[in-house]
Amino acid sequence: MSQNKRSSLGRGLSALMADLQTEDLSPPREGAQREGTLMIPTEQIAPNPDQPRRIFDQTALSELADSIRTRGVIQPLIVRRHPQDANIYQIVAGERRWRASQIAQVHELPVIIRDFSDAEMLEVAIIENIQRADLNAIDEAASYRQLMTRFGHTQEKLAEALGKSRSHIANLLRLLNLPDQVQEWVREEKLSAGHARALVTAENPTVIARRIIDKDLSVREVESLMREKSAKPAKPRSNTEKDADTRALEGDLSATLKMRVQIKHAGTDGGQLVITYKDLDQLDRLCQMLAGNA
Question: What pTM was estimated for this model as a whole?
Answer without folding.
Answer: 0.56
